[in-house]
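Batch manifest, entry 17 of 40.
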Amino acid sequence: METPPDGSQNGAAHPQGDAVQRSCVALIGASNVAYAFPRLAQGLLVRRGFDVFTAHGHGRSLGMRSTVFSRELPGVLECGLWPALESHVRSHGDATGPRVALVTDIGNDLLYQVSLSQVISWLDECLERLASLGFESVVATLPMSSVMSMSALRFTLARNLLFPECPLSWNDVRTISTDLDTAVRGIAESRGLEVVVPRGKWYSADPIHIRQSRQRRAFQAMCGRWRTIDPVLFGKFPWDRAHYWWNKRPYLRWVRRNERIQLQPVWRGPRGNALRMY
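Output type: C-alpha cells
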C-alpha cells in the first residue's frame, strides 16, 4: 500500500477521533480545484484535520454530465455530494465544528452553450442547498481581469484546446462572461456571502487556470474569507508526492462510457477526519 504524505493509511479506521469536534469543508469547483488539490488536501486534511467533501474535476459542470477526453462526471447538482453532506450533518449534528464551503470555477457551462439563465439558476440552487445545511459559503467570481485582457488569438487557442466543440466567438464570450460575473456577484451579495475577485496576476497565458506558482496565494485569499474558522495556511507542498492526491477518485465517474464506482471515503487521517469525493 502506498504511504500517504502524512503517514496515515488509506481507509484506516480511527474511532478515537469520532468524538472530536471537527470542521467540515465542501469544495465545489472544476479545473483549478483539481490542479491545486494536493495543496488543498495537505492544508485542509493533514494540517488542519478537517472533514473534506469535494465535487470538482476538469471541465466540471454545475448541472449536467460533462466530458473531458474519455472521462465523464455528473453535474455538481446531480452528484452524491448532497446526500453525503446531509448524512454527515444529520449524524454529527451540533457535535461538528463550523461548516464552510468554497464555490469557484464558475463559467464552464457557458462554454458548453448552457443559457445564462440556466447557469444562474444552477448556481443559486447550489448555494441554497449549502445554506440549508448550515454552510458558510465563499464564492469566487469569474477571472474577468484575465479574461478581458486576452487577445482574440489567445482566446481562440484556449477555446480550441479546452473546449473544442464550443462555437462561441471572442465577442460572445466577453459579453456573456460579463453578464454572468455580474449575476454571480448579485446572487452572492443578496445571500450575504463573501465574494472573492480573482486577480489577473494569478494567471498567465492560460486565462482561466491559476498558475502553480500562484496557487498558494490564490487559495489562501479564497479560503481566508471564511469567517467562522481560523485562516487556512497553505504551505509549500512536495510536488513529487502530488500524484498521491491526484489519484484519488470520485464516487461516480464514467471512463469510455463504462461506469466506475469508488467507495468513500478515499482517505482517513489519524485524527479520524476523512476525504470524500463526488
